[in-house]
Amino acid sequence: MDRILIDTDPGVDDAQAILLAAAHPKHRIEGLLAVAGNVGLEHTLRNSLLLTEVIDQKIPVYPGCAQPLVMFQEDAADAHGHDGLGDVGLVPQQRQAETEHAALALVRMANESPNEITLAAIGPLTNVAVALTIDPDLPKKLKRLVVMGGAVTGHGNTSSITAEFNIYFDPEAAHMVFTAWAKVGLLIDVVDWEVTKRHGFPQEVVNRWRTMDSPKAKFFKAITDKNYDRSFNVLKRPSLYAADPLALAVLLEPDIVTKAEQRHLSIEINGSHSRGQTIVDWDNRLGKPANANIILAVDDLRFQALMEQGLR
Ligand code: BDR
Ligand code: CA
After folding, report:
1. Residues with beta carbon < 5 A to ion ligand 2?
2. What domains can be seen in the chain, in order of their start residue?
């Protein structure tokens, strides 16, 4: 069994991603590291605990950072609900959070088992950046890092036009992470907002999932209802975008990737219009070694099959 940690800010699509990952036969989720992002930490921590109950796995949940490193800009409650999970009133019944901080838990596990843990970072990178300040050798001690974040040609989804939410929420943290991986010549797998838009779930597929008769599918439907309506009826999107499930699918089955490019990626932390932008040196103008394996296309049917497996 491959061991994974998920750093997360649930978040409707974070919840979907955790359902997807929990059902994978060759991976074991060893912990959820909660971070503030879509909504405040009190919600993302509580939602993480709830998720361990929904998937019925006794996974430790660690409370992480409640604030970005430098300054708060915006959350994503408009997309995820004020409680982060569609405001349907679901709360954990039994599970309690660990007392250890998420950044410390990450450092501890990476040091106990060097090169064994794959980290999925599907929220802002605050916890990972703090872990890096505690242990600058962290990149070499993880087996792999998959980040959901960025908009690699500047088609963002925040009020900072060119920036994607996870990076824009904490650009300094993202800067620290991408710089640290670059320094030791390691690649981060990047699943950005633009590939997310190219590989959403088609409406007819989601409709089928919404009628599945299992507790997990019912949970999926409940938390996704508002997002479904907003996506298809208000925003008229062509599919249901599922950023975090896509990142987990890439982590769990790397060969679903049909196109990827390795490039140097850095974070704009100063720009007045572009703070949080992921700047990709597509033409290798600066000659810096690549630090990002940018996922550009995946096998849609396999991605959908992984999600469906998580709903059974
Ligand atoms: C990312 O931002 C959050 O709103 C989602 O959970 C996802 O991680 C997409 O930009
Ligand atoms: Ca997320």
Report:
1. 9, 11, 14, 122-123, 244
2. 2-311 (3.90.245.10)
